[in-house]
Design goal:
It contains 13 helices and no strands. It has about 300 residues and is mostly helical. It has a single domain, classed as Na+/H+ antiporter like fold. α5 crosses α11. The longest helix is centred in the middle third of the chain and has 45 residues. It is globular and about 55 Å long. The two termini are about 15 Å apart. It is found in: Membrane. InterPro entries: Mem_transp_PIN-like (IPR004776).
Length: about 300
């Protein structure tokens, strides 16, 4: 059995374990909020610090920031155009979920298992550009179509970005790397021990948030959203995959990065702007399942090409 296939089986088992713990009431879905804060504010930053400390920043790595940002902008435009005929409550809700993907919580544990530290470095740089989309562009779309004016949101669009500990950690360690400074060995050793918890906690959290119940009346909207999100991601992903074939890890990052699930911050924006949080939460859950299957298929494809 291929190594990455074994890692996928282990990942599925941990996710199902989280779902089982929820079903038998060892853990509650509300416990996920605490676990999510631990992941985003402690274990994920620790993983970024350890991974980026010794990283050699190359042009291909830096290009991932711009690739992720441009992909997010293109997806945002496609989402707005695709849902332009919907009511504002649906248009803003669906359009804000097309750009922006879940890298830190979803991709990192799988990428670390398949490609190790090199994979984390590439997806980390991808996430820098993606973070601007998630905390800036998605936030703006959600607010603009909820209120119908952009004057307020242009001032606030990027404020969540400056409060994101993972994003600030990216900026901090990249700045240290470029300046030639390195963190003390004791600090890095401590961060490495903490970072080991990132993969299992992230996968358990995905299991806690899995929910398979939804109203049948939502199916047309969900189907349209999935077709737009994954149609765009697969088309652009495969296009760049062949163009960047001389840079295998760069090509892999783009291919996988473009079909990651919708960002969980969509639920936060839905609450803030009074969209239907049940539909948003359901769509996020479905994209987790769809993306997991697609990543397994694409990782198998990449392994033989």
């Amino acid at each position: 059995m291929e190594g990455f296939q074994l890692q996928f089986i282990i990942s599925v088992f941990i996710i199902l374990l989280g779902y089982l713990f929820k079903r038998i009431k060892i853990l509650k879905e509300s416990d996920g909020q605490t676990i999510a804060r631990i992941v985003f504010n402690i274990t994920l930053p620790a993983l970024v610090i350890v991974t980026f400390d010794q990283m050699v920043i190359s042009l291909s790595l830096v290009s991932l920031i711009f690739i992720a940002f441009l992909f997010g902008l293109a997806s945002a435009l496609i989402g707005i155009l695709a849902f332009r005929s919907e009511k504002d409550g649906i248009k803003g809700m669906a359009a804000m979920m097309v750009p922006g993907v879940n890298v830190g919580l979803f991709a990192f544990p799988l990428v670390e298992a398949i490609w190790g530290r090199e994979g984390i470095q590439h997806f980390g740089m991808f996430d820098v550009g993606n973070a601007v989309i998630v905390f800036g562009v998605c936030f703006f779309i959600a607010g603009y179509f909820a209120k119908g004016t952009s004057s307020f949101y242009l001032r606030e669009a990027f404020s969540p970005l400056l409060r994101s500990i993972p994003f600030l950690t990216y900026m901090f360690v990249v700045a240290l790397n470029l300046s030639g400074f390195h963190l003390p060995g004791l600090f890095l050793d401590t961060a490495e021990i903490i970072s080991v918890a990132n993969m299992p906690l992230s996968l358990l959290l995905l299991g806690l948030y899995l929910n398979f119940s939804f109203e049948k009346s939502w199916l047309p909207l969900i189907g349209k959203y999935l077709a737009i999100k994954y149609g765009t991601g697969l088309f652009l992903g495969f296009s760049l995959f062949w163009i960047l074939s001389d840079y295998p890890m760069l090509a892999n990052t783009v291919l996988i990065g473009f079909i990651l699930p919708a960002s969980t911050t969509s639920v936060v924006y839905a609450i803030r702007y009074q969209y239907n949080t049940k539909i948003v939460g359901t769509i996020v859950n479905i994209t987790i399942i769809v993306s997991f299957v697609l990543i397994w298929l694409l990782a198998s494809f990449v392994a033989y090409h």
